Sequence to fold (595 residues):
Amino acid sequence: MDTEYIVEMKGICKSFGGVQALRNVDLELRRGEIMGMVGDNGAGKSTLMKILSGAYLADEGEIYIDGVKAHIQNPHDAFNLGIGMIYQDLALFNNLDVARNIFIGRELVRGPFKLLMDKKNMYKRAEEVIRDLRVDIKSPKMNVARMSGGQRQMVACARAIAFESKVLIMDEPTAALGVTEANKLLGLIRNLKDMGLSILLITQRIPDILSIADRVFVLKGGQRQDILEVSKVSLDDVVTMIVKGKDHNGNQTPEVDYKSFG
Amino acid sequence: MDLNQPRLRVKEKMSKINFSGLKKFTVMFVLLFLMALFSFASPYFLTWRNLTNIIIQNTYFIIVAIGLSFVMMGGGIDLSVGYQMSLVGVVTAMAMMVYHLPVWLAVLIGILLGTTLGLINGLIVTSIKIFPLIATLATATVYQGISYMISKANTFRGYPEEFLVLTKGKVLGIPLDVLITLFVIILVGFVFSESVFGFRLIALGGNEEASRLSGINTRKIKISIYTICGFFTAVATMVMISKSNTTNSSFGPGTEFIALTAAIVGGVSFMGGEGNIPSLVAGVFLLAILGNGMQLAGWGTYAQFIVRGTILLGAVAFDEYQRSQKSKIRTKY
Fold:
């Protein structure tokens, strides 16, 4: 179905014990856009994205992919719907090489009952993905334990998009990177957008979002505050929204102005 | 002149050595070294008869260690294998000797029982979510208790000839249990290196949470590996009781220590995610040759326990050292 939004999340609620992490959250992601996800620590950004990626189950709410209601029960369901997620800790396997990290859970198979791995094609396909991403990884046979933070981030990226993903979720991808590697990664995110992917980018680095995102989704205390058009807001507007949120009428409370530093 | 310069250079060179590559062959080198050492210490050690004896006497240890390697590579541990052998052994023996069931049926009952005991371990570890070390320590005690209750501490001996064929029978001059062991080695080696199951199992041992996030049903794999371990433990039990032509409830306990030591010495990581079958087999032979060689050289039987314990400690320390090296490399970046 050809709708404006590739992902729609409606009325999402999630509690952990007595803590309400998400309250009736709606999110709409347009096709081919980069949407920044911002909010204070504990605002619910990662929880919302983990629900979309199948790592958590929502207590209430509905998810639509391409306008069709989706039942995401586990990460495998999300993969099948074309949703890939790069977790903050990258969730890589240090005991495996690049190709195996990319194909884990979605191995290319051969033989009777598809019980055996098609290693030859896995390494070939891994090489193609690395080449398409134009990243600094010399061979799919490299062990990830011996890679730099930036290279590991690229492997996680390759894994998330290797299977014709439509939506890519990135949780704090630049948090552990130096300036050079972070800039390389932002370049890569732009490339991914050019390749047609819709991207949800969680980050605390708001300038990064303002430089590459189309819209910003602001969460506070588990509630959606607003979705802002990046071209129409400043860094201070976003920071103010993160800290103050909106009042009961949906207006931003005016009495305090928050200024960013640096 | 900086006097520390040569030391620093050596340190730099040391840090470039690929220890994971080295580890694969370490056990082979140590095995060859021990063989050379004992061949000087005793003229009987390097004889055809002694070497074939070592192989024949250790077939069931290899099968148990291979079963245990499934659990260990998946990041778990099973301390109950020796006690599973005790229970499976007496049940199989009683089926043949007390209830006079046909040999094939007794063996089938024994194998099914072993597989079920492994399945119970898997279900406990995944359902109650307690440390596998504690869970299998508890089931080990339960299995041993049941074994003594069923056998009433009796010893069973003099099995039917059809059952003894398992170890006395030969094909092309090779004992049947050696052939079974070879078949298990090749089959499991193939499963680990070529199958999707083997790949996912190694991934699970490497990072359980990442496996779950990759869409792998980690619970299913965990239950499977304990069940497979139980199956191979039961196969090993058949070989063990056929070889000795007798059994009681004390047959089996202690095997878990040898299998565990052999697996770790053979490069199966205590933390999971690493290991290979050829090195594991070499690990079993290393312990066997150590025992055999020390006896022939007249260095005392009891000293073997001290040496085995020290080897286990050394192998775990080496494994831990390797892990710390890997994490140091990551922090460096």
